[in-house]
Amino acid sequence: MLPIGNEEESLRCAGFCDCRFPNSIDVANTKAHIPDMVKCRCGEDSGNGNEWQWHASNEADAQIHGRDIIFHPTYSQGTAIVRGEQPFHQDKVHFWEMRVITALAGTDVMFGIGTDNVDLQQFKFHFVSALGTNAQSWGYSYNGRIQHCGEQLPFGQKFSQGCLVGVYLDRTRGYLEFYLNRRSLGVAYTCIPQHAKIYPMVCSTAAKSVIRLINSTSQSVTLQLLAFRALAKQPHKVEELRQMPGLISIMKSYWFLAPPVRYSRCSKENELDLGDEAVLSSAKLRLSRKQKYTDDVNIDDDDLYANAHKIALWHSDSGDEEYTTSIHEFCDEYFHYLL
Description:
Layout: H1 6-11, H2 24-29, E1 62-65, E2 68-71, E3 80-83, E4 92-100, E5 109-115, E6 137-141, E7 145-148, E8 151-154, E9 164-170, E10 175-180, E11 183-189, E12 198-204, E13 209-220, H3 223-231, H4 235-242, H5 248-253, H6 265-269, H7 301-306, E14 313-315, E15 322-324, H8 327-338
Antiparallel strand pairs: 1-2, 2-13, 3-12, 4-9, 4-13, 5-6, 5-12, 6-7, 7-8, 9-10, 10-11, 14-15
């Protein structure tokens, strides 16, 4: 793989932790089992284990070893798609988290969901962004884009080796949300059909690319879950709840709504914080824009949160002046408001 330029490297999201990961040359030349080259277990003790596994298929150019997927173990001649063993229940919310073990490159590596109508062998000999090519799947690319029905939209930073990619699916409302290093990127889609069979999916065109499932959980939608989801927008309140012995089991069940974060040293050196580090693709942080929204502003929090990545216009308080700002500047203000 060609070396990444300094400019492109600076635009990539830093890894979740500072553990050592093998470089591309070591991966290409190794005769050993690639997942064994990574000892990192950071974040794997956050949840309650894994409630499902990947589905192994003899037809796919991918090997399943427990939680690990090794795409194109010899060489790549197209796109391999892997899905979970079972569809998600319709009356629950689901969250799963994957670690990127190897450096990502090539046409695309995508994370997302798809229905039982997705043909897993359709692009076996074609290099494409497979998830989201039609109405049967929804995908999030390592290039920082989401895709559905063949339409790609920008959705944050590029990412690669060492990052954690999370997927939150609310089957009761049809909401699909993506996380990067345990920071929500906002709701990507609100059109997930409630009565279709939906599976978790990953696809890759990159030879010897490895993805590991580290956490997965499903929870029924109850008043308790809804209450905690609302509290999750206030990290300081969540931290207070974590200190209460009687709530330990509840916090463990709903950990994914306010997942514990471990910053890499690179992130700390760049002074990244909750509002900026993973959700925005801006090369320079606009830390001077700390304006908070006041209580007298009529804003629908849920609606804004669900569509934050699509908003490009912001109206000033004067009412007459309207100016265009970048999506990233707007999100910078909004996510600081959530704090």
